[in-house]
Amino acid sequence: MAVDHKDIATLTPLFLNTVYKHFKNEVPDSNWDLKLHLGIIMLKSFLERSKHKTIEKQQKSLGKAYLPSGLSTLITKATIPETCRSQAEDIMAGLLSGQEEKVGWRWKEDPMKQNPLKGEWVESKTRKKFTNADRVILFIHGGAYFMGSAAQHRFLIQKVAKAGAARAFSFDYRLAPQSPFPAALVDTLAAYFYLTQPPADAGFEPISPKNIIIMGDSAGGGLALSTLLVLRDACLPQPAGAACWSPWVDLFHSLPSIFSNHATDYVPNGFVHKASPANPIKDYTNINDRLSRVQYYAFNSALTIPYVSPILAEDLGGLGEIFITCGNCERLRDESILFAHKAAKTHPNIFNVPRREGQRAYPPSKVSLNVFEAMPHVFQLFIFHPAAINAVKRTGDWIRKVIPEPVANDNKSDFDFPHRSFSCHSSASSASSASSHRSHNSYSSQHNHDVPIISPPSPTKITEEHTFSYEDEIDDEFSMFTNKHIDVKGNCRQTNYMLDEGTLREWISMLGKLPDFTKHPEFLEIKKI
């Protein structure tokens, strides 16, 4: 990756100044060591300097950047056939029927589809020596939907795959703004179909959904949860679960931490770039121009669609098992916490959706929420830090738990999902259901059984601090919501903490609306480069 000389000129004095401030105890969070402090400040400055680059230039440079894999890691390239993408398009067309104007463009005519959908398998060469389970992680890279690649995230993918005794498949979905919503979601769905219904020459047998974990970081975490919603709404078999690191689920930036945690995170005040053919914002110094397209990923009219902002879905139940990790100091913290509560329906009087004629009601999703003290957005990137190492281990342990070792003489069908199935009867999904059943007739409707609503545990709140070692933690197998607050050394210092009803109601009232930027002018402030 070529390094811009302007970046070097800016980052060098910043590096020295950060070291000086650290030893003067001028640190945004007292728990940061020098390496973490430097990493966060340098990454934040690098992202803010995107203002003097075009989107195309940044995509090209970051797309080529990656750390070499170790000799113990096997990388196998793959191409997802267009038939998988066509099936995914049919399903999305059904789910988005009637919302074409909100989507804002003729997405099925995207010229970027001319480029093949590439992916790669990442696997430890010794994996089969340590497990008999065929665990597969479908990993979706982050990058605010407009940058990044599978290769760039390979250093993280190989670590979590090893921790989970799994092999991983990652892919390069189409990036915004050249290909806005639903292009990335269509490509993610196509990758899922590639695993479950591979072509004859793929080199592997069809993988049972119950052996798949969909995983992603940041925008990739949001895509993972959007994919769960699509599979649920289209009445298709769901994976064993989803693991999300700092998922981006609210594209309105509605909640308080987007402002309150600005000083302790590297996420900038929006991503803006120089004018270019791909950039929908022609003058980033013009506030009205910027507000006309808040996100590269989607037109403003599409931000309310739940497949864009998953937290806006009326009902987040019926999504199976979800593992969420976020940092207490990150700007997207509140949306991770609220999503977890809403999906698990921790407060039935707030989150239970009344059953209406023609609509489905879903049981609570089983959610494990892990909030790491003093950590920024996707802190696993700073893999040298003990908290990052611990977070990878916790994710791997959860993957092993959700997809356990096979039991001898287990005669269950590969496509049996008794604990994650539900009946689909609403007219809203009829078009997508018909399309999905035509395209995916290998999945029998015999697995769609009615599941009774499961009452979540009574809300509890720990008022005194408790300290638990990682090894001593015990998850309640039947609890639909588990929350852990983890310190910088990896110890769980507080567990099963639930937000009070008043805070949850206040946050819910903020959703679906852009913040009042007159109260936060710094969010749209343009720094001179």
Automatic annotation (TrEMBL):
Pfam families: Abhydrolase_3. Residues 137-345 form the Alpha/beta hydrolase fold-3 domain. Keywords: Hydrolase. Residues 428-459 are annotated as: Disordered. One of its GO terms (molecular function) is hydrolase activity. SUPFAM superfamilies: alpha/beta-Hydrolases (SSF53474). Residues 428-445 have a biased composition (Low complexity). Gene3D superfamilies: alpha/beta hydrolase. This is Alpha/beta hydrolase fold-3 domain-containing protein.
